[in-house]
Design a protein that fits this description.
The chain is of the alpha+beta class. It has 19 helices and 22 strands. Strands 4, 9, 12, 13, 14, 15, 18 and 19 form an eight-stranded mixed sheet that branches. Helix 5 packs antiparallel against helix 11, helix 8 packs antiparallel against helix 9 and helix 12 runs antiparallel to helix 13.
Length: 687
């Protein structure tokens, strides 16, 4: 498992370097099935790479781009409407303020038809329009065309895409060729796509004017975050009554229970390693489940009833931490593990470690459950996140036991067991209560009941934070607390911090056009699930240009650089950037005053003039039609920047030179700020 984790990490870093290139995460296969009685079925099977999805045809209006599948051709008569086949996923989108419906891994689109003249062959043309997204970026909507011939006797004969008979409209269009290594190639001398030349010769995204402000994409950051969260969780678990008293006893056993002190320390290190290994092995079943059941964790994260179940479980965990009952594994399991310790040697040490993990479950179970719940509802790659989280948890224990075995004299400086450990448990109980509300909110959003408004969520969290502060000040007691607890300086400081968090939360109750409590943006209900909803005019009050060439003229007139914002109406991450990054006080003035903003929507459905339409041959029977403004800007992005993901940001001089390295995807504010300030500063100093 350890090797596999590191291997995947290395692979992720390699992917980071490739991620800026043109992506093609969906593969299609077009077939025609004979149904009998002169009826056929045109089937287009889509296979998606892990982490990517395409939207359903039934996606709600004003969210993502619905998939459209059209079948036409000579001697073809359609039967009914097209259907979708596959595991459909539904989840609430904070950016869109509604549910999105999509397919991941695979899907099939089917359209039945018959031959008008059952004695003559039919030329079948299938066209699909779709959008592909993952959790960071969305790709521009794509339109592909597939051609096959069907004969009355059921023999399916495929026509070569490059030599297929042109349609009636083909005389008005031209076909460009795609070089897989360089993306689509457009001959600007003959292409009718854009009379202003789609290819801008001065643009060289590989060699910008300056290399400052590069904000690298942090693909693997989430794994390290969960490793850190697991490590912190492991340290906290060490401070609980189930584990802390066992630290000096266990370490003393190894360092004093053997005549050979070196062997005792070595065994203690082995003991710590086995603890680490056992926690990592706990993630193995999730890898197996994911392999068998495909996207099961995504289904869990979007299931109303499972989110309600998580809510109830977390409330149950909180009750245990408060001391009203204990959560333990069956005693028979601990007894068998303890008996196996008698084997001695390395095997005996392994079962000693296993026994520790089992008997401490009363305190560690809720903490591990929190990590599980967070991972399952927070990412598509749940098994790897859990592996890193559990590895961090076990690593914390292994380091503590290892260091104390190496320096046993440090045992004397450890605090003595006492009431402070129960305080740690109760504090964790309040944390569990707060986290439980997130799952209830998720269920509320997915079910579209919208009962748990943003303000109500904040009020409940305020009450939980106040309860925590009152407990830390000794005004509230729980079953295992002393009748007259001593309020230490640490408890008072934590209590003051709790009151400070209450003050922070209160500002979220004040209506505002800009989002507040951004530290909790992934936890709180979105802004539109509120008792007060403010409509925004444009993008944060700005009205960007939607035509690049108009933006160029304006930039020349005002003497400003151009910020190209390749975006989309159906791009969730684009909305997140606008709401949580653009709206920041040190970002918005730059966008308003220092650049000419050109927001180019790659999913704009407005038709291009007939003499500007074209086709692009992608090979393998796939032909992309460029017939809308969105198609035009999508191709513009690919040809000039070798990129097709959104959001994608490029700073240009008015004469079309790339100032600094473009950036893609949802990113932290500081990265985006560095990108903007670098480019704007360079332009001002060198124009």
């Amino acid at each position: 498992m350890k090797f596999k984790s590191w291997f995947l990490l290395v692979l992720l870093f390699l992917v980071t370097g490739i991620n800026a290139q043109i992506k093609n995460p969906v593969k299609f296969k077009f077939t025609i099935n004979e149904l009998g009685d002169n009826q056929y079925e045109a089937v287009l099977n889509a296979t998606m790479e892990s982490g990517w999805h395409i939207y359903s045809k039934d996606i709600p209006e004003d969210t993502g781009i619905p998939t459209e599948y059209k079948v036409s051709g000579k001697n073809i008569e359609l039967i009914g409407k097209f259907t979708e086949v596959g595991k459909k996923h539904e989840e609430f989108s904070e950016a869109f303020g509604g549910n999105i419906v999509y397919y991941s891994n695979s899907a099939a689109f089917k359209q039945k038809f018959r031959l008008k003249d059952g004695t003559k062959p039919g030329d079948v043309v299938a066209e699909i329009t779709y959008q592909t997204c993952d959790d960071r970026v969305c790709l521009a909507p794509n339109t592909l065309e597939f051609n096959k011939q069907v004969t009355p006797k059921g023999s399916v004969e495929e026509t070569e895409p490059a030599t297929a008979e042109p349609s009636k409209d083909s005389a008005k269009t031209e076909t460009a060729v795609v070089n897989p290594a360089k993306g689509p190639v457009v001959n600007t001398e003959t292409s009718k796509l854009d009379p202003k030349q789609l290819k801008i010769e001065s643009i060289n995204f590989k060699k910008p004017l300056t290399d400052c402000g590069v904000a690298s994409e942090k693909v693997a950051e989430n794994y390290w975050t969960y490793l850190l969260l697991g490590f912190i969780g492991g340290l906290i678990a060490l401070l609980t009554p189930c584990v802390f008293p066992m630290i000096p006893l266990t370490v003393s056993f190894f360092t004093k229970g053997s005549l050979n002190k070196a062997k005792g320390k070595r065994d203690a290190f082995i003991y710590g390693f086995f603890i680490f290994l056992i926690f990592v092995l706990l993630s193995v079943p999730f890898h197996i489940i994911d392999g068998i059941a495909g996207n099961i964790f995504n289904e869990i994260s979007t299931s109303v009833w499972l989110n309600i179940a998580f809510f109830i479980i977390f409330i149950f965990f909180a009750g245990s931490f408060f001391g009203y009952y204990d959560i333990t594994l069956p005693s028979a399991i601990a007894n068998k593990s303890s008996k196996a310790e008698e084997a001695g040697g390395i095997v005996g040490i392994f079962f000693m470690a296993l026994t520790l993990v089992i008997v401490s479950f009363s305190c560690t179970g809720p903490i591990l459950g929190s990590l599980l719940g967070s991972a399952v509802t927070g990412s598509a790659n749940v098994p790897m996140l859990l592996t890193f989280a559990l590895a961090g948890f076990g690593l914390a224990w292994a380091i503590i036991f290892g260091l104390l075995a190496l320096f046993p004299q440090a045992l004397q400086s450890l605090p003595k067991s006492g009431g402070w450990m129960n305080t740690v448990k109760v504090v964790l109980g309040f944390v569990e209560l707060a986290l439980a509300l997130k799952f209830l909110s998720k269920a509320d959003l997915v079910s579209k009941t919208f009962l748990l408004k943003r303000e109500l969520f904040i009020v409940i969290w305020i009450l939980v934070a106040l309860g925590l502060a009152l407990y830390l000040f000794g005004l509230i007691r729980f079953p295992h607390d002393d009748k007259k607890p001593k309020i230490s300086i640490t408890r008072k400081i934590l209590g003051v911090l709790g009151l400070g968090f209450v003050i922070y939360l209160v500002q979220g109750l004040i209506p505002s056009e800009r989002p507040k409590l951004q530290l909790l943006s992934g936890i709180l209900p979105p802004l539109n699930v509120s008792y007060v909803h403010d409509e925004k005019d444009g993008i944060l009050g700005m009205h960007p240009e939607h035509d690049f060439f108009n933006a160029v003229e304006l930039a020349k007139k005002e003497g400003k650089p151009i910020l190209i914002d390749f975006t989309g109406y159906g791009c969730e991450n684009c909305r997140k950037m606008e709401e949580f990054v653009w709206s920041e006080g040190d970002i918005l003035p730059i966008l308003q005053n220092d650049v000419v903003l050109a927001s180019l929507y790659v999913d704009d459905k407005e038709e291009l003039p007939e003499d500007q339409k074209t086709k692009i041959d992608l090979g393998d029977g796939q032909v992309k039609k460029v017939k809308t403004i969105g198609d035009r800007w999508s191709l513009f992005q690919q040809v000039n920047f070798n990129n097709n993901s959104q959001p994608h940001y490029v700073l240009l001089t008015p004469d079309g030179k790339v100032i600094n390295t473009p950036v893609s995807g949802y990113m932290p504010k500081e990265d985006f700020k560095k990108f903007l300030e670098c480019g704007v500063s360079y332009y001002k100093n060198n124009k």
